[in-house]
Amino acid sequence: MSELLKQMEKSADEKLTVAEVYASRPRKWLLYTAIVLIIAVLVGWSSSGVNFNGVTQVGAEVAKGVFYGIFNPDRSLLFGTKDTDVPYLLLQTMAIAVLGTVFGAILAIPFAFLASENIMPKPIAYIFRVLILLIRTIPSLVWALMWIRVTGPGPQCGVITQAVCSIGMISKMYITAIEDLDTKILESLDAMGCTPFQKIRYGVIPQLTASFISTAIYRFDINLKDATTLGIVGAGGIGASLVQCLNSRRWAMVGSFVWGLMILVMIIELISTRIRKKLAHGA
Fold it and tell me: What are the tens digits of pLDDT across the range 84-105?
């Protein structure tokens, strides 16, 4: 009986301790209130600079035309085999995205290693981090407008633009993977007398391969969508034809291009998602 009373007293003391800890928790309501007020002020200030005057008559006609084209696509364009039909332009768009991603992923590897603080001295790593940041700050359309003066209009401009833009994003994600390396494995290999090449081969590459491939696949999804946008400025792909059809109000052709893009993006998304899951779970 005495032991039961002792346990009850002990549990009561524990409950009291928890209650006291909860009562002495940090009071952050002032901080949270300040954050909410700052967000509200920013939203209000931003809203004052955006003037929405409603949908214009021309805009309403364009929206109706696009919806009409989606439900009534030009089937001859959608299933044609000419170089102006949807399948050919989609293949060209995908080719631009593939080459841009591959070149960007390969070129991003030395940038990432040189910008990693656990591998390179901090001054050198800082210089390369700044360079990667400069690449990322320029939008892809601006890069395309610059490269189109060098290469001329066409798919080659799209490939170079996407390769450069991919370096900026992929390098940043590569750096995170490199700095999360398990250094104990490298120390073990060093204790076994392994050469630097053997340490990279057996200690670094196995840890980074899955992360690097997953990052490249994710960037390919982005590049596939960007390749359509880059076509607007003449960088190849389906974007230029889509804009021409929009400007000339050929809604059935617009619908064909939209359907082609949606189907292609969904297929690529399903495949890339499965690959990333297998890389993440190792099965």
Answer: 788 888 888 888 989 999 999 9
pTM for this entry: 0.75
The amino acid occupying position 172 is: K
Cβ distance 258 to 166 under 8 Å? Answer: no
Q: Residue 223: how many CB atoms within 10 A of its CB? A: 29
Whether residue 229 contacts residue 149, with contact meaning beta carbons closer than 8 Å, is answered with no
The separation between CA 22 and the C-alpha centre of its own chain, rounded to angstroms, equals 41
- Domain spanning 67-281: which superfamily? MetI-like (1.10.3720.10)
d(CA 239, CA 245): 10
Whole-angstrom Cα distance, residue 108 to residue 106? 5
Q: Is 53 exposed, middle or buried (0-12, 13-18, 19+ CB in 10 A)?
A: exposed
Of the candidates 210, 212, 211, 214, which has an alpha carbon nearest to the alpha carbon of residue 109? 212
Query: 206-251 pLDDT, tens per residue?
Result: 888 888 888 888 889 888 888 888 877 777 778 878 888 888 888 8
- Using the predicted structure, report yes or no on whether residue 39 has a pLDDT greater than 90: yes
Choose among 173, 267, 268: nearest CA to 222: 268
Amino acid at 115: A
Q: Where are the domains of the chain?
A: 67-281
Please list, in sequence order, all residues whose beta carbon lies within 8 angstroms of the beta carbon of residue 226, skipping any fewer than 6 positions away. Answer: 97, 140, 162, 165
